[in-house]
Design a protein that fits this description.
Number of strands: 8
Helix content: 10-25%
Strand order of the largest sheet: 3-4-1-2-8-7-6-5
Distance between the termini: 81 Å
Largest sheet: 8 strands, mixed
Amino acid sequence: MDTHAVDPSRTMLTFGRVDLVRVQVGYRASPETPAYQQFLLDLPVLETGDGRDGEAFDERLALSALEPVVFAGGDAPRHYSLHQHRSHTSWGPSSGAVEIGLLVTTGSGTRASGPDAPLDGVTRAFRDLMDVVGRPESAQTSRDAAILRARAAAATAYAVDADTLSLSAEEHHQTENSWTFKLRSRAGDTYAVVVGFVDGYAGSVRVRHEKRFEVSDSIGSE
């Protein structure tokens, strides 16, 4: 059998540079229950004046920045599961991406204390991650762009069809450059979505799964 030596300096297959970092942080009461809220962050990797770019993306710094999310608003870290996916294509303007998924198990007591319990930790972590990756320029988010982002985030977080989500309520927080929406699926599930919850950056989205509206008939046993 013919063999040939592998020369790593001439390899054709490569993961290339990192152009985009996507993070999804979810909170669930127990390992057997789905997440009751999720936070998403999409960040383009920016070149900086010190020469740092996607080639120098530091996974350890990114994970260190995310550590506050595992406290879930408390003093002790909670159990979590972590996964990472790296992708690259040999075409297109954005050819390399890193996706980080973090699912934190809070226990029922944390959820009972309110859905805002983890918010400060996630906000801090996402800000720190922006400093690691490169903070994008701020820009006003239009209503149409915010609705599109909200539907896409709910679809990603809860595996629903974005096109089937109807808008039932909205609020624009102009000073914070954020939008709040209520979306409802055909199955009756509702999602409270905040676009721009971190410093008005539209790539930061919070999705909270609210109660399902059950449809019951009026026929019962006598």
